[in-house]
Design goal:
heterodimer, A: 23 helices, 0% strand, B: 148 residues, alpha/beta, 2 domains, five-stranded mixed β-sheet, elongated
Amino acid sequence: MFILGVALTSLIGWLAIGRWLRGGWPAGLGLGFAAGAGLLSLQMLLYGLAHDRWSLAAILLPWLPLAVFRLRRRPAFERPRPPAWLEWIALAAMLAAPVAWLAYERVMPLNTRGWDAWAIWLFKAKAFYLDGNVQTFLRRAGDFTAQPSYPLLIPLQGTFLYLLQGAPADHTIKALSPLYFFALLAAFYYLASRFGPRAPALVFTAMLANLHMVNIVAFELAGYADTALSVYLLLGAGFLYAWIKEDKLEHLILASLFSSLAAWTKDEGLFFLAGVVAIAASRLLRRAVRDWRPWTALLAWPALAVVPWRITLQVFGVPGSGLFQGAWNLSNLGPGLSAILTQAAKPNAYNLTFWLLLASLPLARRAGLDARWWILPALVCWQLAGLLGVYLLGRNEIRWWIGTSLDRILSQVAPLALLASALVAAAWLEARERQTPPRVERRRARKSGSAA
Amino acid sequence: MLIAWPHILEQYSSVAQARAALAPLSREDRAAALDQPGYGVAREIARAVPSRACVLVLARTGPEHVKYYQARFAYYLYPRKARVTDRADAAESGCAYLAVFRDTPANLAQEPFPGHWDEAQLAARLARLTKIHADESVEIFRSPEVAR
């Protein structure tokens, strides 16, 4: 039933966004899973507010007409050409860390480490399942220390799986985190190969697959929402870049959808969504766009993913997380900034991710990338600036705050930072290839030279 | 890969050790083995306390462990309301059930108990209640006002 739940999630996501994707089945599966989880959980929120009990039929039946419409013709995924030797090596390298982490036993020590996942995310999934709706728990929110105001994508996705299984089997919701990790790899490869050749895209995807801190967050801290958030941040930024580069409306729809799902996953995503909406809106305003379609594409998803939940919190009188509340404490600037830079520079945590990003900044222009590429590092900096802002608010003791948040937040933006570097590497390789004559021509030139 | 490799090797070895220790156990036994003694205690409370009731857990444990057990018991015992405190004289505040839980010596060695815990006062308090369950890790009591 768990596998059926995951398959249905991917299918629903693919039904919704598949027409705008190009590429093979890993992209359809990975991006479909990410989109499907978000759409299902939003649907469940609206149902859970309107009805006493969820029913699987009510959740799944509305997708049936779309499935009939979309599947009336057999879906055609691109058939990839066979990998070259370097690509085989990258594929093998991609499996090294996930194989080491995937053993089920690694999920169990969550019991003794990282119990926030139980207290916040898994707890709500179980409560919603047992109550059959979201209202009962929200009415009792004061009875529990479960951060009731946090967004509900992960808890409601867990509830959906519990409904299929007929029991709150918590090991299945913990398995979502590794699944998001594979969706992250699929999303990264999709974006990197979309804007560059396949070989560097695979090499950088392998680098992402072996990032130690990203592995820890996905596997050892299974049950948290950070891996899911990193998928949505990556896709939100990647499709925003695609929209700015190619000016196609569907990219704006996808950028807005995935950024809104980031906000529906964690409060950090709300900050990211504000950044994406600000960049897109400023571009539309600068170009004096009066057409209603891009504006709707930009604002409809945030309205659906953020507004109902915020209204619900108000209606039920649920207190906020207080993340952005508190008095400014500028003495936290030094320790906060220093901790972010020191931790990001650690190769044993993030490999060379942030060093590569730093190296990419002067190289991007020389590789032939224009100013549009800068939105990717800008969004990484935006997220880190948000984190620094939270440290400056001084709600918690700074050392404790850094110790409990920094690694996870860097792991959320590490894939995006790596994507920015991957695009520079791909552009640089392509530029070099254009400058160098093909091997056949070089051979001919040598022959004609020797004949002369 | 060169930078990532030591972590990957460490992970392989850690998985092998975990597998050796946990492979013969059922899923429930694994949870009990890793979550000692939260899982087992919560299971006993869940058996003894009705699903819509409130239970006050007096826990002789360290301050971080209080937070830990609060999260664990809230999770395991939902929809019951579970409140965990390290003060033996804490008020019931409308909770009809009371559980007394003494943490394992290993956990207390890791984080010593700093709370308020007077055994004589506790015994007098418990004498007024009906004992409905007792084992080596937890005792559970019911207020006499609760209808059987």
